[in-house]
Each structure stands twice: as C-alpha cells, then as structure tokens.
Amino acid sequence: MDPILTAVYVHMARHHNASVDDILVDPLLREEFVTLCRRSVGEDVPEEKLLRRLAGLRKRSKLPRAKDIPAA
Q1: Are 36 and 8 within 8 A, CB to CB?
Q2: pTM of structure
Q3: Neighbours of 70 (CB within 10 A)
Q4: N or C: more exposed end of the chain, with fewer CB within 10 A?
Q5: Coil vs helix vs strand at 3
Q6: Mean pLDDT of the chain
Q7: How many CB atoms sit inside 10 A of residue 2's CB?
Q8: Distance CA 12, CA 53 (A)
Q9: Cα 22 from Cα 52, distance rounded (Å)
C-alpha cells in the first residue's frame, strides 16, 4: 500500500502543490487523495487508515518533500 500512497502523494504535490499537511487539513484535497488511493487499494479501506499511513510515511521520511517535486 505504501507505494500507492507515495504515488498519489506525488501526484497531489505536482498538481496542487500540496504538502502532506495540506492533504490532511484541506477537505477537498483530502477527499481527492482518499478517492485516488481507494481506486488502487480498494474502496473498503477506511479513510483514517489511509491518512494515518500517509502521516506515518512522512514521519519516517519515506516521502519526497513537496518543494522537491517539480510542478506538472
């Protein structure tokens, strides 16, 4: 699941210049992130699990920094 979350995060960072915090806080960005993730990992995965996993990836420095991802 982590590679999918990472890929969706990179997509969001490129297209919306969004950081992890932006995704976690902004309802529209969060909804788009969850929707894109669920398309790949399954509709039955709870939103909370996806968001906690994303925050965990950031905490463990497993995500590229938003500022280092070129805009689309």
Answers
A1: yes
A2: 0.90
A3: 6
A4: C
A5: helix
A6: 93
A7: 13
A8: 16
A9: 14
